[in-house]
Amino acid sequence: MHILIVSFQLKDMTEEAFRALCDGLAPRFAAVPGLLAKVWLASPATNTYGGVYTWRDRRAMEDYTASELFGAVVAHPNFANVTATDFGVLDGPTRITHGPAPIPAAA
User: Fold this and answer.
1) Helices in 31-105 by DSSP H: which ranges?
2) Which residues are bridge partners to 10 per DSSP?
3) Which of 76, 91, 74, 78 minimizes the C-alpha distance to 17?
4) How far is CA 81 from CA 8, 17, 30, 57, in A?
5) Which helix (H) or strand (E) holds 36?
6) What distance in Å separates the CA atoms of residue 21 and residue 7, rounded to the nearest whole number?
């Protein structure tokens, strides 16, 4: 399993417009191969938005970060200071704290 955290600030876009954009884009993200879950983030008080992506494996995350969809996020004219940080998952303690179960390797 692999995690990608993306964050950015809105520029010349209201939170309402951003939420509508997210609602429209959610089905596209749901169809991304290897994406187990995406949690959409919003902190209006700090003007920080983004997502926590849980991937089947690092390769699926790398395929996404090379995709047109990720490129559109990074280059969106209303998103400023975009950061994307990937993390491996420590399976043992994550299991203890009720994190998602690791995905078994393909047979």
Assistant:
1) 58-65, 68-75, 91-96
2) 79
3) 78
4) 5, 19, 25, 26
5) strand 35-43
6) 16
Q: What percent of the chain has pLDDT over 70?
A: 93
Q: What does the alpha-carbon distance between residue 79 and residue 8 come to, in Å, rounded to a whole number?
A: 6
CB 86 within 8 A of CB 3: yes
Distance CA 20, CA 12 (A): 15
**Closest-CA residue to 55 (of 33, 82, 28):** 33
Mean pLDDT score, 86-106: 80
Q: Name the DSSP class of 77.
A: T
- pLDDT category at 104 given cuts 50, 70, 90 is low
Please state whether the predicted TM-score (pTM) of the whole model is above 0.85: yes
Task: Find the helix or strand (DSSP H, E) in which 25 lies.
Answer: helix 15-30
Return the amino acid letter for 48: T
Helix, strand, coil percentages for the chain (3-state, nearest 5): 35, 35, 30
